[in-house]
Design goal:
alpha/beta, Rossmann fold, 6 helices, six-stranded mixed beta sheet, 191 residues, globular
């Protein structure tokens, strides 16, 4: 497990998220990379989480820094509570705070229910649902202590309507709806 951190600071007054720090899981490619770029364009320092493609993550970070943003990359297994706590700790240690968490990391292993084995089920739920829980649980104490924080969980329409060959994915994304609503109620009582 390793962390690569580099920064390039250019704060422009009037940036909506200036002074804020965001952590985006699965942040070095696809939707996660787009979310990171958007947050950075609004002035946030961005910590992008990734699982295994270190070269890709480093290339993403280089591109982000060239745009004038402040950022870092953090490697970990989103399905591991310990890794989630470690990554959150790294971000808080590096930036002194963590204001925004975007639980974006997700995978699919598509098979009909009758052909889906236990590992297919468990792996998708570990990444898509348990990872969001582990990351949120790790960031909430810092957010409650600072009386500020935003957690965004990326779900899917498949979580509402299901899809053939995606029982594991649908269950994980549907679970995010309940997790999000429950955490919102609980966190509101803390503030």
């Amino acid at each position: 497990m390793s962390t690569t951190t580099e920064t390039k600071t250019t704060t422009t007054t009037g940036e909506k998220l200036a002074g804020r720090v965001a952590l985006v899981t699965g942040g070095n490619r696809g939707i996660g990379a787009a979310i990171c770029r958007s947050l950075a364009s609004q002035g946030a320092a961005v910590a992008a989480g990734y699982s295994s493609n270190k070269e890709g993550a480093e290339a993403f970070l280089e591109d982000l820094l060239k745009s004038g943003a402040e950022g870092s990359i953090h490697q970990g297994n989103i399905g591991s509570a310990e890794d989630c706590r470690r990554v959150v700790g790294e971000v808080v240690e590096r930036y002194g705070q963590l204001d925004i968490l975007v639980n974006n990391a997700g995978i699919t292993i598509d098979k009909p229910v009758l052909k889906m084995d236990d590992e297919d089920w468990n792996k998708v739920l570990a990444v898509n649902l348990s990872g969001a829980f582990f990351m949120s649980k790790a960031v909430l104490p810092n957010m409650v202590e600072r009386d500020y924080g935003r957690i965004v969980n990326i779900s899917s329409i498949i979580g509402q309507r299901g899809n053939i060959g995606q029982a594991n994915y649908a269950a994980s994304k549907s679970g995010l709806f309940g997790l999000t609503m429950t955490m919102a109620r609980e966190a509101a009582k803390q503030c």
